[in-house]
Amino acid sequence: MDYVKLNKSRHKVKNFDGKKIPTVDVKQIISAASLAPSAHNIQSWHFVIVESEEKREALLSEVDPGNHEQIKQAGAVIVLFSDTDLVERSRDIARLGAGELDDEQLLRFNSRYPQMYEGFEELHESNYLSINIGLVTMNLVLAIKNYGYESNIIMGFNRTQKVNEILEVEKRYRPELIIPLGNSEDKGKPSYRLPQSQIMEIR
Amino acid sequence: MDYVKLNKSRHKVKNFDGKKIPTVDVKQIISAASLAPSAHNIQSWHFVIVESEEKREALLSEVDPGNHEQIKQAGAVIVLFSDTDLVERSRDIARLGAGELDDEQLLRFNSRYPQMYEGFEELHESNYLSINIGLVTMNLVLAIKNYGYESNIIMGFNRTQKVNEILEVEKRYRPELIIPLGNSEDKGKPSYRLPQSQIMEIR
């Protein structure tokens, strides 16, 4: 779909028809989303598609009750994590991308970035990860809409390692957001936006 | 442009032709970007378009030297801030949106959200703001590309109140990112992406 039309028609939708979305669609949506930029191209996001009905049900114990129904009805549920081991991730990229990256890039991922990450303070690292999550999530919800599905972004859950335990995800990953998606007759509606004069200044 | 094509063709570009972009274009780009979702629809972003040559020059004192040239050559420079006064912002939305929001929404922005924000811990609030910044920035760079311009996202600068002083921006706003944009013959190229098996798990 045309980007302008897509951007204007994407609204949060919290009710779905319960029909499962093919995993191949979810994979292609994630593939499109992960073309998002990230700081130093570290791609610190980690997507978990919750296929198991038992795990989806167990996940609800960590989610605010008001968000249960949309997760139950969704055609697919993605739990999005951040990789908190940026030093290791940087080296992983050097290793996995060895065939595609040039020497200078390899040096960065093998040495310069790991050194930089070791110097990050907690608050700074946490924000760095969160900005990257925001970037990829925007692209994710656009890609979902472009595929003909609706979605919502859920922050209302306990972002603790309990989520990792339920989903059997390594502890290096930090839970960030839950994105239910699926078919819906509800196409959502535009949310209120502040007037431009309120969000913009010229200097 | 078609979203898939747009998403695949958007790459970072760090060199521009130096020709100023009309402010009306930048405003329309910001308008498109701000259709991004945000947590509780708080829209905690604040865009500053740096029109003054003196202020653009002064800003360089806070930017890593490696990023100076792209800021100098850009057709426009946007400095993106977060509103750290979420309590006040919530009430601002209730006030400014009074004509469009229903009673339940007004109650939320006037009372429920301010109470919630008062209980936020520093780290949580900071991440909350950063995720919102990531969401709007992804939409911003897509909107820029869709308008026919190129852009880059700069994290490499001192994110301190010195930036507010230089740009004469209220202290309630926290500097987050600098986005230079402009015309360029360089259309960028795809950056390395981790294989999907590395960023995705099915559970």
TrEMBL record, chains A, B:
<dbReference type="InterPro" id="IPR000415">
    <property type="entry name" value="Nitroreductase-like"/>
</dbReference>
<dbReference type="GO" id="GO:0004155">
    <property type="term" value="F:6,7-dihydropteridine reductase activity"/>
</dbReference>
<dbReference type="Pfam" id="PF00881">
    <property type="entry name" value="Nitroreductase"/>
</dbReference>
<protein>
    <submittedName>
        <fullName>NAD(P)H nitroreductase</fullName>
        <ecNumber>1.5.1.34</ecNumber>
    </submittedName>
</protein>
<comment type="similarity">
    <text>Belongs to the nitroreductase family.</text>
</comment>
<keyword id="KW-0560">Oxidoreductase</keyword>
<dbReference type="InterPro" id="IPR029479">
    <property type="entry name" value="Nitroreductase"/>
</dbReference>
<feature type="domain" description="Nitroreductase">
    <location>
        <begin position="8"/>
        <end position="182"/>
    </location>
</feature>
